Structure prediction request, 286 residues.
Amino acid sequence: MPVDPDALAPTRKPGATSRDSPTALGPRPGGGSSGARSTGRSPRQAGSGRAERAAQQVTELIETAPPGSRLGTKEELRTLCEVSVGTFNEALRLLQARGLVNVRPGPGGGLFSAEQSPMVRLGNSVLALDARQNDVAEAVRIRDALDPLLIEDALWYASPAEIAALRPHITAMESAVGDADPVAFVHANWRLHAAIAAISPNALLGSLYTHLLELIETHTLSVLPTGDQPLGEYIADRHALHRDLVDALDRRDRDEALRLIHEHNTTHDAAPAYAAPPGSTSRRQP
Prediction:
């Protein structure tokens, strides 16, 4: 059986292969080749890529400036990044969500580098892998290693309401199977995992996990089958596994929940690929 679509870029322990089969397509325009077949990018994807690159340019400025330093006005920084107003506004939202900048209105206002907490610095170091090291495969490997910890926390701490809140994500995955929409399935799958992570009382664990999901999602351009099993059958199987996992959490069945998350992250012969950022070299699981 193929590999989990929420992985999309696995590097595995020697002798093991990913269970997460549908794949993200290889390189973004101007990047290295992943060896995967490209189907092109939508205008929305291209716009998001420009916003991410603009955010990275501003991030590089922030790294050279003391906390609280004035970086410039929005227009000055937009001109520096050579992007449209809309794209820069999207980049600014990314920077604010990452806790990197403060915006001050009025005379002498503009964008200022923010004082970062240790948690924010950790999150941004994970996000920086995207542009600096192209280490999405390692991100997936770490994410898989964190899954059992989050399942243990969900077994201990999830309230009935929190378990109930997981089920709409399972329903969304089921709808995507019925619609034969693997991209919608993957995104519903990730939302389910993010919701499980949100149950954990461990803020560090939850933050690291969700940052890893964001990094992986940034590289997802499309989903393809790899291996012999048809993609429709594969996502149907993966829906059943996640449904059973939520049922096991609801019953507080620790053995079954841990067995399912182990099955989720191990065994298969597929070779997922992912998109590489511009100017970098992508890696593939052989």
